[in-house]
Amino acid sequence: MLQRFYNNLSLKGKIFLPLLSVFLGMWVVGTLGIGYFLTQRLGTLLEAEIEELASVVQYAFEQKQQLLSLRTRWVADNNNISQFVAQKDRQKLLQTLLPMTTRFQIDFVKIVDNNGAVLVELRQGEINNLPLRDEAINRAAKNGVDWVTTVTPEGDVLSPVILAELTTVKSPQEIVGGIIVGLTLSDKVLQKIRAQTHQHLALFHNSEVVAATLPDAKNTSWQPPSSQTRPKVIKIAKETYFAKAVELSGISADAGLTLVLLNSTTPLEQSKRQLWAGISVLFLVGAGSATVLLFYSSRAIARPLQDLTAIAYHATQESNFTVQVPIKTHDEVGVLGKAFNQLIQQVNFLLNQQQAEVQRQQLLAQELQHTKEKAEAANRAKSEFLANMSHELRTPLNAILGFTQIILRGDTSPQEQRNYIEIVNRSGEHLLSLINDILAMSKIEAGKIVLNPSNFDLYRLLDTLEEMFRLKTQAKSLQLLFERAPDIPQYLKTDESKLRQVLINLLSNAIKFTQEGGIALRVGLSNSEHRDASIEPSEIELVFEVEDTGAGINSDEITHLFEAFSQTESGLQSNEGTGLGLPISQKFVELMGGEMTVQSTPDYGSLFRFNIKAARASLQDIEKTHPQGKVIGIEQREIIPRILIVEDKPVNRQLLTKLLTTVGLDVREANNGKEGIELWESWKPHLIWMDMRMPVMDGYEATRRIKAHPQGKKTIIVALTASALEEERAEILETGCDDFVRKPFREAEIFNTMATHLNLSYIYQEDSKKGSPQESKETLQRPLEKQLQQMPSEWIEELKQAAIKGLDDEILQLIEKIPEDNGSLAETLRDWTNDFDFDAILDLNDRAKI
Fold first, then answer.
1. Model pLDDT, residue 567
2. How confident is the prediction for the chain on average, in pLDDT?
3. pTM of the model
4. Might you give the EC number(s) for this enzyme (predicted)?
5. Max CA separation in the chain (angstroms)
6. Nearest-angstrom CA–CA distance, 449 and 620
7. What was the pLDDT predicted at 777?
C-alpha cells in the first residue's frame, strides 16, 4: 500500500517526503539527544553547585567550631581561671566566667577539677533548665582529654544538641582540671550558616533531625544521605530537595552529628521545563523551517527535471527538436540537461542531415537530369560543331587539294599556276585560323592559355580594323562607326594579339547578323567612380563597346551565348562559323583583367561591352617592326652568316633550306640533335634552327650540351616546335634557346627572327605595280583604268558587286577571266584582293567609268 502510494506521488513529492521524513527523524533524535544531554548537564551542574555549597557550609561550620575551640582555649588559658580552679574557688570562677559567657555568647560552660567534681556550670538559652547527658564529658575533662563531642538532653527530648569543646586547665606545674565550652546547635545557628549559602540546612543527631532551617524537615521522617555519596533526592512535605551530607571534620565520630544541605529541585525542574519548552519550540521552528526549506528545495530540484520532462514531451509529441533545456545549475541535473540538449541537437542534426540528404538526392536527381540534358545538348552541339567544322575544314582543304591537283597536271599557264598557288595559300591561312581557334579553345578549357603583353599602337590597331571591315560593311550597305575617346592613350602594353582577336570576332559577328543599319565600335576609359581601386596609377582600364542594329539575341539564348560549340538560331541559319568565337573572346577578356557583358533586344540589335586593364606605354617602347615585303637577299657583309638546320623531317629541312639559300645564306642540315652537335663542333654556325622533338637526341638535350660549352654561349639557337602550349615556351627557353618560333611559320617570322639576333639587313623586291613614292596614285592607276575599260561591262559589274560584298573568292575567279595581255591588271587586282583592299578595286571601277 505504501509502495502504491509512493509510486503515485509526483517527482516533487517523492523528493520531498523522504527528505522530510529523514530530516524530521534526525531532528527529533537530535532534539531529544540535545535535551537529554542538556538535562543531564543541568543535573551535573546542579550537583557541582551543591558540592560547592556543601564546601561552603562545611567551611562555615568549621569556622564556628574553630571559633568555639579558640574561645575554649582562651578561657582555659586564662591565669585567673587556672588559679581559681587550682584553689577550687567557685565564687571567683563564676565571677570570672559570667562576663566571658556574655561577651563570647557561650551557651554552656562547665569546669571540673582533676577529681571530676564540677566546680562551675553555666548555661543560657534553650539548655538553661534541661538535664544533660554530660557524664562522659565530665570524665574526659577530669582526665584532661582534649575532645570535641556533643551533649544532648536526657530523656526523650532530642534537642537542642550542644557542641562541646573539652580541654585541660593547667597551672604552671600541673593539670588542675578541665573545662567544657559548648555551643547550642539550634535553628538559629543553622540560619546564620544559611545566610552564606541561601540553602536550607538540617542537622541530624543519631538519625534524628535536631535543628533545621526548614520547619518541615523536623516534621518529616527522612534519612540523611552518606557524606560519601552524590546528592540524594528526598521529599519533604510536598517539596523535593537534593540532600547532600556535609562531612564535619574535627568532631568525634561517636558524636552522631550529620549536617545535611537541602537544595530545592524546583529551580532545576523549572529549568528543565524551560529547556524542554525551548527545545520543543526549537523543534517546531526547525520542523517548520525544514518543511519550508525542503519544500522549496524539492521544488528547486524537481523544477529542472519537470522542465526537462516538459521539453522532452514537447519534443517527442510535437516533433520539435529545436527546443533546448535552460541550464541553470552545474550539478547532475545540469549535466543531464546538457546531455539532453546534446541529444536533441544530434537528433535535430540527424533529421536536418536526413532532410538535407533527401534534398541533396532530389537536387542530385535534378542535376543528373540537367546534366543528362546538358550532355545531350552538348553532344548535339558538338555534333553540329563537328558538322560545321567539317564544312569549314573541307572548304579550304577542297581548294588546296583541288588546285594542287590542277597544278600537278601541268597544263596550266604560269599566270594560272600563280593564281592557283595564291588560292592554296589563302586556303591554308584560313585552315590555320580554324585550327588555331580549336587549339585556343582547348587551351582555354585546359587552363593553359596565358597572357603575352607587348607594347603597341592602339590607334594604329583601330585604324587597321576599320580599314579591314570598311569594305565588308559597304558591300552590305551598312554604316561602320569607330569612336574613340580623346583621353585614351595611343600607346599601351597588353596582349595586342588577343585584343585584336576579340575585336575581330565581335565585329565579324556584328556584320554577319546585321542586314541594315550599322555597326559601331566605341573605345573609352572607365568612369573614375567605377574604377577598380587595385589598379596602379600607371595602369588604366579601357572599355570597348560593339553595337549593331542586327537581328538581336533571344533572352533564353543569351545564357548559352558564351558556351563552347553553342550557336544562336541566327548563327545556325547562317551556316557559317564554329561557335568558338565568343567563348574564346570572353576568356581572352578575362585573361586581360576584365569581363564581357551583352545586352540584346530581338529585331533591334545587340551591344557587347567588355573592359580590360592595360599599362601605359610610350612611342619609345614600341618595338621597331621589320618592313614587310619579299626578301630577295641580304646586304653585303664580310662574313656570310652560317645557318644550321637541325630537323628530322626532310620536308621541313627542305623548306627552310630553300627559303634561306635563296637569299644568299650559308646553310647546312642535320637529321637529329646528335648530328647537330657534331656539325656545330666542326662548322661553328652563327645560328641554329633547332627542332625540339627528334629521334636519337631531341632538341632539348642538344641545346643544353651546346650551351654548356663556352663557345656555345655565342651561338644563337632558335627553337622550332609544333606545340600549341604556351607554357612550353618557358620550358624551351630554360634549356638555353634564345628564341622561339611555332610551326607553321611565315617567311617573315623567319627573316625577322634572324634579323633580330644576327643584325641582318635585307634586300627587298621592288613592287613596280605599286609605284614609287614619288608617283601619284592616279598616275599608277591610269593604265589599269584603260585595261579595265577593255573588259565586258557584265564582268565589270560582277567585279563591283563582289568587291562591295567582300567576296574575295568570287573576285579571284573573275580575275582568271582577264586576258594574258592585261597581266598587270590581273596581278594588281589579285594583290588588292589578297590584302582585302576592296576600296581600291571600287575606286578603280569608279575611275574606269569616268
1. 58
2. 79
3. 0.41
4. 2.7.13.3
5. 218
6. 29
7. 45
